[in-house]
Amino acid sequence: MNENLPSDLPPPLIVSRLDCDRLDTLLDNAQSAGLDTDGLRRELDRADIVEPAQMPPDVITMNSVIRFVDENSGAEREVTLVYPRDADGSAERVSILAPVGSALLGLRVGARIAWPLPGGRTTQLRVLAVPYQPEAAGDRHR
């Protein structure tokens, strides 16, 4: 992350072409089902799209394992970013259609995002690591 950017600018995003193609299909189906997909659509529209083989290993992609910290509380979490069909309701699997899932896609290690909480509060999430990324592991056709 470029520390010289103003903090109110969203961090840059990188998304693989394969993820983008699959997410476009998912969004079309979700929109037909009446789900709110505007947040994810906005994120994809501003992302730089790269081929899976060119994906930097420190970027969150679909099916990546992500470790992040809530900078306000210091609480760390490790989650896997999944397609809705793979979300099982556990805290360890976050659907891309969940607001935090949409917000994490395409971020690099070190990136920070403001995250709204109930009651009008906000917290800062910072990406600490991507312990598993399918592209870096050679799993480009998942």
TrEMBL record:
GO biological process, one term: regulation of DNA-templated transcription elongation
Nucleotide-binding keyword on record: no
Transcription elongation factor GreA/GreB C-terminal domain sequence ranges: 56-131
Keywords: Kinase, Transferase
Keyword Kinase: yes
InterPro entries, alphabetized: GreA/GreB_C_sf, Rnk_N, Tscrpt_elong_fac_GreA/B_C, Tscrpt_elong_fac_GreA/B_fam
Positions of the Regulator of nucleoside diphosphate kinase N-terminal domain: 11-50
Pfam families assigned: GreA_GreB, Rnk_N
Molecular function per GO: DNA binding; kinase activity; RNA polymerase binding
Domain of life: Bacteria
Alphabetical list of NCBIfam families matching this protein: PRK05753.1 (NF004396)
PANTHER family named among the record's database cross-references: REGULATOR OF NUCLEOSIDE DIPHOSPHATE KINASE, TRANSCRIPTION ELONGATION FACTOR GREA
Protein name in UniProt: Nucleoside diphosphate kinase regulator
Organism: Tahibacter soli
